[in-house]
TrEMBL record:
Protein name stated in the entry: SUKH-3 immunity protein
Domain of life the protein comes from: Bacteria
Lineage of producing organism: Bacteria, Pseudomonadati, Planctomycetota, Planctomycetia, Pirellulales
Amino acid sequence: MSEKNKLGTFSVRAIETLSLQGWETGRHVSIEAYQDELTTHGFLLNDVARQILESFAGCSFAVPEGGIAWIVFNITQARHTFKPTHVPVLEVLLEEEGPCPAGGGAGHILFACPSGKVALLQEQWFSLLAADSFADLLEAILFKDLRHCHEVPNVEECCPDW
């Protein structure tokens, strides 16, 4: 049975994989510190990013067989190379307003948009993988299952100046 939530429907295999690494369905943690850190550094926390963090904040997952080797749900890791001044560029690429960092790992940053769309940006702006829900992107992260994801074109051309 899969878990239905506001982030999409998590597959049985995703729930099992995450559970084996300590995550629990229905997990809900305080994200006040994350919200403060985002605000302090000029990011706006949207509802979808809030939901991801409430369920996953502080978790880290090793996924050597997945689309990326590991992912951590902490804001410091997520905003390592991404600055608030880069948000407008990402908005154009995603055709969405207000993407907010919600995690990162293995050279990637996870973003969540208010619409529910999520994206995984390679830190050097080499690639941007997008999906309509976190559950869909989680399949790509954990299992390299890209059926419900798409690569956003021309990402390298839009890389902001460092």
